[in-house]
Amino acid sequence: MEGNTKILSECPTGTPVYFGAYKEGTTVLDFDRMVKYGKYIKKTDQNAETECTSASFGSDPTPGVLKQCMCDKYSYYNTTQYNQDKSVWELKEKKEEEEKTARMQLEKVK
């Protein structure tokens, strides 16, 4: 769970660790659901100081949502799939931002 938990003991350096949503609504997300939720950060260069926090992962994939860290010790979720999902996520965010900007511009015109 997100917080000051050190992740190196569970997920050695070089092993993918994912930082993403803990729940969707009231449902606690398992690994599959977390990555399908679509907003997570992957890290493989964790060290003894790495914590399950936005600061340790460099950004917050789901602002305002409780997050969790999950270790992929068995390479269940491959890099190709990760990159495909990341591309979809980034396009979705870009579209949402463009729609927000368009709505704001319409508001100014009124």
- Can you write the helix and strand succession as a string? EEEHEHEH
First-last Cα distance: 45 Å
Report low-confidence residues grouped into runs of 5 or more: none
How many extended strands? 5
Shape: elongated
Q: What is the oligomeric state here?
A: single chain
Helix content: 25-40%
Strand content: 15-25%
Main pleated sheet: 3 strands, antiparallel
Overall mean confidence score, pLDDT: 82
Q: Total helix count?
A: 3
Helix-and-strand structural type: alpha+beta
Radius of gyration: 16 Å
Placed side by side, the strands forming the largest sheet appear as 4-1-5
What do you see in this structure?
By secondary structure, the chain is an alpha+beta fold. The protein has a domain at 17-77. 38% of the residues lie in helices and 16% in strands. The protein is built from three helices and five strands; from the N terminus they run βββαβαβα. The chain has helices spanning 31-37, 54-57, 79-109; strands at residues 17-21, 23-24, 27-28, 40-43, 67-71. The strands form two sheets. Strands 4-1-5 form a three-stranded antiparallel beta sheet, covered by helices on one side. A hairpin with a 2-residue loop joins β2 and β3. It is elongated. The model has no long low-confidence stretch (mean pLDDT 82).
